[in-house]
Specification:
The protein is mainly β. It contains 1 helix and 11 strands.
Length: about 150
């Protein structure tokens, strides 16, 4: 494992950014090193040295990863989250959802909203087709690259 220098100033800067933005977690990666700062009762940090080479792909592709989440790479027609935030399936509380399983959507049609830093970001359908699966529920937290739904 490669050695790395722990940067106290970076951790302090990230913690301050959390405080200023109201986020609960932030992760920074550069030059094969990753620092994650999260809060919730106190600020915790995690620093790990990452290998420079991309990890090898598993021999047998599975639909779910270790966390039980659907792996977007193995889901045909996956619509993924472009950011960390909260997914909303409807434009406002009590309103009908943007789409339901079985609906036909057109390219560019808003299918979800992801709220990040108090900003509502519409998630457009990357292509037209039929909604086959919706993998998140209204108000679910989502990660960058997480599969949100499948459109075939």
């Amino acid at each position: 494992m490669a050695k790395f220098k722990f940067d106290d100033d970076l951790v302090r800067s990230l913690a301050k950014l959390l405080e200023e933005t109201g986020l609960t977690e932030i992760e920074f990666e550069a030059e094969g090193q990753r620092v994650r700062v999260a809060r919730g009762g106190g600020v915790t940090t995690e620093a790990t040295a990452q290998p420079q080479a991309a990890p090898a792909k598993p021999e047998a592709a599975t639909e779910t990863g270790e966390t039980g989440e659907i792996d977007a790479e193995h889901l045909p027609g996956a619509v993924t989250s472009p950011m960390v935030g909260t997914a909303y399936t409807a434009p406002e509380p009590g309103a009908p959802p943007f789409v339901s399983v079985g609906d036909t959507v057109r390219e560019g049609q808003t299918v979800l909203i992801v709220e990040a830093m108090k900003t509502m970001n519409p998630i457009p359908a990357p292509h037209g087709g039929k909604v086959m699966r919706i993998l998140v529920e209204n108000g679910d937290p989502v990660e960058f690259g997480e599969a949100l739904m499948a459109i075939e």
